[in-house]
Amino acid sequence: MHALDATPTYWAVLIGINYYVKDAVSAGSTTLKAKCLEGCIKDVQAAKEYLDRASLRVNVNILTATTPTDQSSDCPQEEPNAWPTLDNV
């Protein structure tokens, strides 16, 4: 057996939520979108880059909610299977 074969495999679920759908929809206005967070997605991307550089085998799953650029939209930019929902986790 090679040394690499003995290396354990790790799993990471990285969640970054800039946009809170429920809050924006219940407010009924686009003003809440201006109050959404801005750094969470970048933090998740930085964490993934770090894990990619690590010498361990890490399986990374990323779930994010990016504030939509379309002011009329009430959904994150990502596809629904990449949203940080309980079902997706």
Unreliable segments of 5+ consecutive residues: none
Trace the largest sheet across and list its strands. Answer: 1-2
Alpha-beta classification: alpha+beta
Task: Based on Cα principal axes, name the global outline.
Answer: elongated
Query: Number of helix segments?
Result: 3
- The percentage of residues in β strands lies in 15-25%
In percent, how helical is the residue content?
Answer: 25-40%
Rounded to an integer in angstroms, the radius of gyration calculated over CA atoms is 17 Å
Strand element count: 2
Sheet of most strands: 2 strands, parallel
How many structural units, i.e. domains? 1
Mean pLDDT: 81
Distance between the termini: 34 Å
SSE order in H/E notation? EHHHE
Describe the model:
The chain has 89 residues and is α+β, with helices and mostly antiparallel strands. It has one domain. It is 28% helix and 20% strand. The protein has 3 helices and 2 strands; from the N terminus they run βαααβ. The chain has a two-stranded parallel ribbon. The longest helix has 14 residues, at 40-53. It starts with 8 loop residues before the first strand and ends in a 24-residue tail after the last strand.
